[in-house]
Design brief:
five-stranded mixed sheet; alpha/beta; seven-stranded mixed sheet; 12 strands; 13 helices
């Protein structure tokens, strides 16, 4: 079996920041994985694409088919340009997540656009993609998929917490990897920052200036999702149908809504970690730059050692791990864990397209 791989990982998250691309070199020696993150970029979506992706949740079948076709072309062009710009050669594969527009695993539905076979022809590369569908077909949540990467690439940490569109955590328990979504993060924080004419609340400064509405905070913390046991996952549907209608009932400033929701995030994360016990917590994702949120997590978890890694790992961890999922698929090794998704069995998921 080969020991070295030269791949690109591609990820587009629910926060609609853009497409993350990371050129990765993997080495596996006697079952131990190491990695080097080389060139990286985030290619932002223009305003037209942001609107299309936001509205995709209400599209009919024909609109989704057209969106998928157009997005596959967009994503393929972005990947091709990245390869050319950085003169990347001798790739083993491009490993791409695509962009989630529908995620209702309880109904057997998950759709990641940008995973059509044409992407291999556009990029002129072998492409490994569409990692979630098979898991849902096997009775799983189709998420989270990152924990296999946490286990193989970051084994020194007790807990791995990602703060992206949603927060999710993974950890080992009795030799089994456990992982689940905790609560929305940037899907809600960015929504209210957008209302103030900003892409995001830089450093959490606006939230820090707000006053927490205790009644709203209590209602948020009492949502039924938080009483469910894992495995469990969240999609934008939860934000659109549950969280935002609840927050919109309150006639308070956007600053106060940001303050309340930031506190809600910190509380939900702290409740989970406190229940699990002491250890070292690795935090990645865009939310790692939200100083106010990190400060609140620190204050609620005084006995936990919190580590925030280098910028490339913070920003491109998901692209890194989807690169790993693609390599595991090429090696015909399991890349999805039933213990975290609830599927019938561990399995090797994804489609492989040749140029």
């Amino acid at each position: 079996m080969r020991k070295n791989y030269n791949v690109i990982g591609v990820m587009s998250g629910t926060s609609l920041d853009g497409v993350d691309l990371a050129h990765i070199f993997f080495t596996v020696d006697d079952g131990k994985w190491s990695f080097l993150i080389a060139e990286t970029e985030t290619i932002s979506y223009d305003s037209i694409w942001v609107e299309r992706l936001k509205k995709a949740i209400i599209f009919n079948r024909e609109q989704l088919i057209l969106l998928n076709k157009d997005y596959t072309q967009l994503l393929g062009d972005i990947i091709k340009s990245f390869i050319e710009r950085h003169a990347i050669e001798n790739l083993d594969a491009v490993c791409s997540h695509g962009h989630t527009v529908l995620h209702r695993p309880q109904d057997g539905v998950t759709l990641q656009i940008g995973n059509l076979s044409e992407i291999a022809a556009i990029t002129k590369q072998k492409v490994v993609c569409d990692f979630r569908v098979q898991d849902v077909e096997l009775g799983g949540q189709g998420a989270p998929l990152v924990p296999i990467g946490d286990r193989l690439l970051f084994p020194e940490y007790t807990y791995c917490l990602n703060l992206g569109g949603f927060s999710n955590i993974s950890f080992e328990k009795n030799g089994t990897r456990i992982a689940f979504d905790i609560c929305p993060v940037n899907t809600v924080l960015n929504y209210y920052a957008n209302k103030l004419g900003l892409d995001y609340d830089s450093g959490g400064a606006i939230a820090a200036s707000g006053v927490i509405n205790e009644e709203l905070l209590m209602e948020l913390n009492n949502l039924e999702f938080y009483r469910q046991d894992y495995p469990k996952s969240l999609g934008f549907e939860f934000v659109r149908e549950t969280v935002l209608p609840l927050m919109e009932k309150y006639n308070i400033s956007f600053q106060d809504k940001l303050a309340a929701f930031t506190e809600h995030i910190a509380i939900q994360i702290s409740l989970i970690v406190k229940r699990l016990g002491k250890g070292e917590l690795l935090i990645t994702g865009g939310g790692a730059y939200n100083n106010f949120l990190i400060e609140r997590i620190h204050q609620l978890l005084p006995n936990i050692l919190i580590t925030i890694p280098d910028d490339k790992t913070i920003q491109f961890k998901e692209a890194l791990i989807f690169a790993l999922l693609g390599v595991l698929k090429l090696r015909e090794e399991n890349n999805v864990l039933a213990s975290v998704t609830g599927a019938k069995r561990d399995h090797s998921s994804g489609k492989v397209y040749k140029p």
